[in-house]
Amino acid sequence: MVEATAPGKGIAYLHWGNSWQLRSFQDFRHYIDDLIYIHDLPLTELSAYAAVVVPDAMDTAALRPYAQQLNAYLQDGGFLVVCLQGNADWLDIAGLEWTPGNCRDWLWWTKGEKLEIRLSEPHHPITARMPLSHMSWHWGGSYNVPEGARSIVEIDDGSGSLFLDFPSRPGRGRLLLATLDPHSHNGQRFMPATTRFLRSFYPWLNEELGIKRPAISRFTYLQCSHYPSEWHPQGLEESLKLSGFDTLFAPYDQLSPELLEKTDILYIPSSHDELFLKSRAEDFLAFLSQGGNLIICAEPCQPWLPFMAPFRAVPPRPFTNIKVRVRDDRFGIFSDLGDGFDGWQGVFGQYVRGWSDPPPGAIWMTDIGSQEDPKPADWMWQYPTATGRGGYVFMHSGDNMTRYPDHGPNKEMLVAKVAIALRKLSVGEFLF
User: Fold this and answer.
1) pTM of the entire predicted model
2) Average pLDDT for 250-274
3) The dihedral formed by the CA atoms of 84, 85, 90 and 92, expressed in degrees to the nearest 10
4) CATH match of 10-209 with 3.40.50.880
5) Quick one: CATH architecture of 218-427?
């Protein structure tokens, strides 16, 4: 769903099948155009890209056969980004020398001590977006600063650089070279500084290249029932506008690939024609595979997407069985809504009366049922694709969420909060 403003001049991301590399690509895919398997390089015309990223966790033996092609890309004016824990002697950079070494104490971060690195003087422009704390964990050796290079961060005794910029290589190429390993640790969900690094780096790289990515701001409400409060819920458009979304209300019979191409988040209210939606299953799956996001309110009788399961009600007695409890609010959806968000309007239990089983890998967000045998009322899931670009599904196994909450400090903000979470997931501000 995301395209660069300069067709054919986007960003390529290489990988050799490593899970950490792939997970980091999924996290920041909004800022990257193509995922390229290292052994497919001979079939790839690198000149089509404004930048090529060689992430850390790359097997050096797998990379070396393609050194000539990568050096040729750099010499022909390409922008090459290399993160490597070790010697990058395959790069054709005169005078570049690598020295093995690392931090004095691997557990420095548990002791409140400062890591022995500093920003190089004068500060490189990237540091306006990426402070030293975003580059502080450990490193895999250091480099000297050969002629034509500029150091970004260095060991505080001046013995070597951990991050180098070669801004004007012969042929107008550019190289960024780091002995830092942000992709591997972010992909392992270990060391928060590495995630901060990537959250800073990829927006900076796009800005540096003049690539503008469209915002995740298009929200479509699929009008499935002509009952007034279902057809055009009061307050929905206003709450979404406050959160930076443009809202379209579209009758369900207009559902088409063309409509889906115009949205980032599609909302489906609970009262809908399951047979009709099932007839459009291929369109929904194509939308998800391209990075689109779904918010589904449903109590499925005939599940209309392959990852959906039939709805099952919890026993309504004792009364506490239909009290919804927040289990996992890592995305901040239910924060500030108050404990009674599920019963503020109508009959208590209208928000959710049961559940539908989530697919493997989903995040179970709220509970319904007894304390001893809770069931998932709301869950979030990423649609799996070979490209890593799958969008997200927020499944609400109950009534139309536009009814909740209807009062309180964040009136009518529940749907907007789900949309905000999906937007942040799509651009890497949240990790799944």
Assistant:
1) 0.93
2) 98
3) 60
4) yes
5) 3-Layer(aba) Sandwich (3.40)
